[in-house]
Specification:
2 copies of one chain form a homodimer. By secondary structure, the first copy, chain A, is α+β, with helices and mostly antiparallel strands. Chain A has 4 helices and 6 strands. In chain A, strands 1-2-4-5-6-3 form a 6-stranded antiparallel beta sheet, covered by helices on one side. In chain A, strand 4 and strand 5 form a beta hairpin. Chains A and B meet through helix 1, helix 4 and strand 3 of A and helix 1, helix 4 and strand 3 of B. Strand 3 of chain A pairs antiparallel with strand 3 of chain B.
Chain lengths: ~180, ~180
């Protein structure tokens, strides 16, 4: 299951993040076929492409959304529980979402999250390369709306050393193939 | 419990978001005193300031982290389950974090989240003004580390109509007062 980074970021390809200029390489192991409710089964697994976490983006994300010393400044972060600069957990969560949308969870109607539970077992550090491994763990067809169901997916975001930095077990609304 | 928006955003005040240029007005109801573990009790409540959600920022956040039609384009969003442009749930989560850091949850050592569960009961729309109401629901002092504990806080993010758009029940690491 190799993961490579795109080395270049062309603004005219969909691989490229137009805001952050961070290359996102989609290497999902499933085919590019988009999946409906009836295509899913418990135990089904998906792998995302990879995403390199930029130090400046860690700081600018934190400046906007989570301005705490351990997300903003190397020196200040050293004396905190993080023992060094760490990305905001919400930054990691947002990166994981990008990896899922870019093929890590190829649902035909997109990824419509209803909620879920999450944890951050390890910090995300500057320069980390993340990818997401997902598994379908529950499928509940709707009784009242026969064309849809709620699927529980556990998505584990791992760094280049195989350490989990973020685990999100989310409930996703999934539709059946139209008529 | 009135919530007002700052009308101007000066880059030299801490009220101002230096990246997004979105005014954040801190009107936390607790005093500005920062709290340690022994200052917390179950049922304790906190209110954040307010934050106006900018339409262009909804789109640029989604372009970077959650590029799906219902977060990017009004017309495309109309035919989706959202029936109009909606912020990424991770954008709403990040805004809620900013409101907590800016006085909505005044913990002395900052807000160090270990995990939690979340849901998005309603979409966040362009122009919405959000605030966060938090309540301490559990306090578990550490047995092995007497200077810290884990506190469970339920934080409900509401729009200007009092609708909950995001509920996060998070476990936060909190320290005792030193010495």
């Amino acid at each position: 299951m190799p993961h490579k980074l795109g080395n270049a970021c062309s603004p005219v390809t969909s691989d490229c993040d137009l805001v952050g200029r961070i290359p996102v390489k989609n290497m999902a192991t499933e085919t590019s076929r988009k999946l409906y409710l009836e295509d899913l089964h418990i135990g089904q697994r998906f792998n995302s492409g990879s995403y390199r976490v930029d130090e400046e983006r860690i700081k600018s994300f934190a400046t906007e959304f989570d301005p705490q010393p351990f997300h903003l400044d190397h020196a200040a972060a050293q004396s905190t529980i993080f023992r060094g600069l760490a990305a905001s957990g919400w930054h990691t969560a947002a990166i994981a979402m990008r990896l899922l949308v870019d093929g890590g969870l190829p649902l035909a109607n997109g990824i419509i999250g209803l909620g879920g539970d999450l944890e951050w077992p390890n910090p995300t550090r500057p320069g980390d390369t993340l990818h997401v491994e997902s598994e379908v763990i529950e499928i509940v067809p709707s009784r009242s709306r026969p064309n849809q169901g709620v699927v529980k997916v556990r998505s584990t975001t791992l760094n280049q050393d195989g350490q989990a930095v973020y685990v999100f077990t989310g409930k996703v609304l999934v539709f059946r193939r139209p008529g």
